[in-house]
Amino acid sequence: MPTRKLMPDVIKNQELSCLPPTATAREAALLMAERRIAAVLVTEGRTLKGIVTERDMTVRVVAAGLDPATTPLSTVMTADPDTLPPSSPAIAAMELMERHNYRHLPVAVDGEAVGMVSIRDLFAVVRAHLEEEIRDREAFMFGSGYSAEGSA
């Protein structure tokens, strides 16, 4: 996977799904359901404060017996999450996510949320790269630009 950057190569034209720390777990769950996403950024203005994922909702709200309607995100979010800048290579995101078992990683500049990359986003990049590699190898092996006569 050559030097594909998080932005704009992996994620582009992304609408961020953000809620303030005072929003409730229920509000986060409703936003996730409405947008069919698995994580919400917790922000004050554009400043990233945390992230709440489906896993957080399951473990920190449901399994803990908390009331989603009254539980603020500030009590169940992962505060000060790891981030990468938009210019980071996709492979850096993959390595960080694999090392810490993340499925979502905020993209930030000077503490300001500018995007979120998911393992699904990265999978799509890897898949496209592998398909391109296969096409290139097939073209080399079966014709299209390769000729034994032209080499000497």
Topology:
Blueprint: H1 6-10, E1 18-19, H2 25-35, E2 39-44, E3 47-53, H3 54-62, H4 73-76, E4 78-79, H5 90-100, E5 104-109, E6 112-118, H6 119-142
Parallel strand pairs: 1-2
Antiparallel strand pairs: 2-3, 3-4, 5-6
Would you mind describing this structure in some detail?
This protein is an alpha+beta fold. It has one domain: Roll (CBS-domain). 42% of the residues lie in helices and 20% in strands. The chain contains six helices and six strands; from the N terminus they run αβαββααβαββα. The strands form two sheets. It has a four-stranded mixed sheet with strand order 1-2-3-4. A hairpin with a 2-residue loop joins strand 2 and strand 3. The longest helix is centred in the C-terminal third of the chain and has 24 residues. The mean pLDDT is 89.
Strand proportion: 15-25%
Give me the strand/helix succession.
Answer: HEHEEHHEHEEH
Just name the CATH architecture: Roll
Trace the largest sheet across and list its strands: 1-2-3-4
Q: What is the assigned CATH homologous superfamily? A: CBS-domain
Number of helices: 6
- pLDDT average, as an integer? 89
Q: Give the number of DSSP strands.
A: 6
How far is the first residue's CA from the last residue's CA?
Answer: 32 Å
User: Biggest β-sheet, characterized?
Assistant: 4 strands, mixed
Specify Rg, calculated over alpha carbons.
20 Å
Instruction: Give start-end ranges of low-pLDDT stretches.
Output: none
CATH topology-level fold name: CBS-domain
CATH class: Alpha Beta
The helix/strand class is alpha+beta
Number of domains: 1
Shape verdict? elongated
Query: In percent, how helical is the residue content?
Result: 40-55%
